[in-house]
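quick one, 40 residues, struct below
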Amino acid sequence: MAANDIDNARSTYETFMGTLKWTVPLIAIIAFIVVLMIAP
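---
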């Protein structure tokens, strides 16, 4: 039973980290574009 919990936790962690690898740079790019649009 504990092995199943570890497998579920590992799967959740890998999914989260995979999503994070794409969303953090994307948010940074969007923020940079917004700053360029606001700056005179």
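Residues 1-40 form one domain.
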